[in-house]
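Take a record:
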Amino acid sequence: MLNKSQLEHIEKRLLEERAKALRSLGLFDQMAKADRESGDSALAAYTDHMADQGTEAMEREKAALFATKEGRYLYRLEGALRRLYNDPKTFGTCHTCGADLGFERLDALPHARYCIDCKVKEEDGN
């Protein structure tokens, strides 16, 4: 079970990670807006070289994947904050077996919900 100072530390880590994820998503929104606006310009009528078009498409796909990954990460962080605020006494216990996750694991991965053993079993499909 985590003590009060450990819980406060994990809360701070979650809030810092959430701020980073929001900044990343904000940057993505700005990039997407600039891309849409540049497509409306008079120069958009001119076709680029096929290689340039492929590069631009690849960059847009990478940006969309990044936003999706950041979005999922933000969702996990928000869930961890809700768990922490709603029930601080059980925060840091494995959702599967109830074992303590440990402060070191939560410091490294503050949104963790499973102990390492249960996480390995889940990833192995057992």
Q: What stands out?
A: The longest helix spans residues 50-86. DSSP finds four helices and no strands in the chain.
